[in-house]
């Protein structure tokens, strides 16, 4: 009976220590957490846009905010279907997708995201060479980066 209690105690202690180690482990970090791009969205505008990145393990999000890219009509919250494709240094691509956006006035600046994607440690996808596709009321809008993002690609832990 004593041996059984010792084994049970040892298993519980090991499980508790493992759980504490996971809880105290540092969160994954993306560097840098913000970058700028210059985007061309055709008749919907173009100019500087800010990308903000977050990471939690292999899950990552990107949010794009652009004063120079304008909403064609007044848009309700979560009414834009978006896909931001980014090109990796090895030629592969990563898609960040979602339907999250704040409400926007006609002619107002566009914000989409957070858009969700999956990353691996060391991934460093770049906006230049990729594209942002937004679907608004069935109308497809495609934006492309006209130069590499600054200060450089995001690097995920």
From TrEMBL:
Residues 1-25 form the signal peptide. The keyword Signal applies. Keywords: Signal. It comes from the Bacteria. This is Lipoprotein.
């Amino acid at each position: 009976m004593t041996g059984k209690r010792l084994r049970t105690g040892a298993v519980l202690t090991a499980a508790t220590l493992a759980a504490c180690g996971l809880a105290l482990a540092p969160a994954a970090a993306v560097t840098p957490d913000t970058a700028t791009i210059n985007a061309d969205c055709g008749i919907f505008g173009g100019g500087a846009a800010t990308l903000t990145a977050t990471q939690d393990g292999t899950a990552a999000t990107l949010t794009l905010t652009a004063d120079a890219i304008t909403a064609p009509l007044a848009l309700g919250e979560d009414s834009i279907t978006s896909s931001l494709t980014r090109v990796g240094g090895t030629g592969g691509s990563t898609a960040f997708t979602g339907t999250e956006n704040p409400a926007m006035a006609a002619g107002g600046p566009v914000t989409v995201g957070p858009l969700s994607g999956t990353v691996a440690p060391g991934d460093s996808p770049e906006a230049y060479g990729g594209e942002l596709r937004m679907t608004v009321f069935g109308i497809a809008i495609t934006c492309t980066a006209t130069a590499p993002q600054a200060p450089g690609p995001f690097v995920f832990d």
